[in-house]
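User: I'm writing a tutorial on reading structure tokens. Could you give me a worked example: one chain, its sequence, then its tokens, then a sentence or two explaining what the tokens reveal?
Assistant: Sure. Here is the example chain.
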Amino acid sequence: MINIKITENKLNITECLEIANDLGSGGIASFIGTVRNKTKDKSVVRLEYECYRSMAIKEIQKIIDQAITIFSVRNIIVHHRTGVLFPGEEAVIIVVSDGHRDAVFDACRYIIDTIKQTVPIWKKEIFEDGEEWVSAHP
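And here are its predicted structure tokens:
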């Protein structure tokens, strides 16, 4: 099962876990990226995510296909928010399920790291005293 969603609506981890669940999977790993309230000692008021939607979906699909090939996992869910998000809200949820725990953990990490590097989703941090577009690379 592969499920990709890019939405301005709040994300739902329960929904993602239900989609990924199957009786043949002995392990389910998840990554939930949330909005921090501070960056570099500056208070974050909100984040604004923008996206080139059709290209982002294609890129996420490529990443999922690579993860399936590399880690031999079968169920991958990637849901990402766009629009305005506030501290504590979920920006991205990744769930991977399969028969073995090492594979699902490794696939989760690979997927989030690659999304941050290659998918056309841009993040702007809004602070009390200004704003800044955030590069995917530190």
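What the tokens reveal: Residues 53-71 form the longest helix (19 residues). The beta strands are 2-7, 27-34, 38-39, 42-51, 75-81, 83-85, 90-98, 121-127, 130-134.
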